[in-house]
Amino acid sequence: MTALEFTSVVEHMAPTLRPAAYNLTRDSDDAKDLVQETLLKAFVNRNKFKAGTNLKAWLYTIMRNTFINHYNKVTKRTSSIDTADLIQLKPSDDRIVTLNRASGAFALQDIHAAIDKLPEDLRAPFMMYYIGYKYLEIADKLELPIGTVKNRIHLARKELKQELKAYAYAD
């Protein structure tokens, strides 16, 4: 199979990869990235494809392995973090930039106080979500069902919104 034929066939199959990528990632942007990376690896490793075999299966295998490798890398990178440390994470005043430092400092104190008032079972998943963990990662770290994690984050937001309603914008 020539390079031009291979490129044409692979580009024709690209749309069929998107649903499978979404099933793996559960995020549309991550799925698009996964498909793009899969196609790149397919083009780079075109010479490893054996003509007469199932190209679609070969592409799905590349995609699945790419996803697994990325998941393992992310898990390895975050697995050394202790959740007790995450609960204590709060942005420091020197990392916050505001136009009016006085009102910004008051708002930041109020936000910290509101977060401190949250019950422990709501604060831990909320803080993990705040620093960038996805729901599934939080559920795994805290050994909770994903529905419980989503509910606790929702309740934490609701309580924070109520506690900080003085800062709400008027419509």
Automatic annotation (TrEMBL):
<dbReference type="Pfam" id="PF08281">
    <property type="entry name" value="Sigma70_r4_2"/>
</dbReference>
<protein>
    <submittedName>
        <fullName>Sigma-70 family RNA polymerase sigma factor</fullName>
    </submittedName>
</protein>
<dbReference type="InterPro" id="IPR014284">
    <property type="entry name" value="RNA_pol_sigma-70_dom"/>
</dbReference>
<keyword id="KW-0804">Transcription</keyword>
<comment type="similarity">
    <text>Belongs to the sigma-70 factor family. ECF subfamily.</text>
</comment>
<dbReference type="InterPro" id="IPR036388">
    <property type="entry name" value="WH-like_DNA-bd_sf"/>
</dbReference>
<feature type="domain" description="RNA polymerase sigma-70 region 2">
    <location>
        <begin position="10"/>
        <end position="74"/>
    </location>
</feature>
<dbReference type="InterPro" id="IPR013325">
    <property type="entry name" value="RNA_pol_sigma_r2"/>
</dbReference>
<dbReference type="InterPro" id="IPR013324">
    <property type="entry name" value="RNA_pol_sigma_r3/r4-like"/>
</dbReference>
<dbReference type="InterPro" id="IPR007627">
    <property type="entry name" value="RNA_pol_sigma70_r2"/>
</dbReference>
<dbReference type="InterPro" id="IPR013249">
    <property type="entry name" value="RNA_pol_sigma70_r4_t2"/>
</dbReference>
<keyword id="KW-0731">Sigma factor</keyword>
<dbReference type="Pfam" id="PF04542">
    <property type="entry name" value="Sigma70_r2"/>
</dbReference>
<dbReference type="GO" id="GO:0006352">
    <property type="term" value="P:DNA-templated transcription initiation"/>
</dbReference>
<dbReference type="GO" id="GO:0016987">
    <property type="term" value="F:sigma factor activity"/>
</dbReference>
<dbReference type="GO" id="GO:0003677">
    <property type="term" value="F:DNA binding"/>
</dbReference>
<dbReference type="InterPro" id="IPR039425">
    <property type="entry name" value="RNA_pol_sigma-70-like"/>
</dbReference>
<keyword id="KW-0805">Transcription regulation</keyword>
<feature type="domain" description="RNA polymerase sigma factor 70 region 4 type 2">
    <location>
        <begin position="109"/>
        <end position="160"/>
    </location>
</feature>
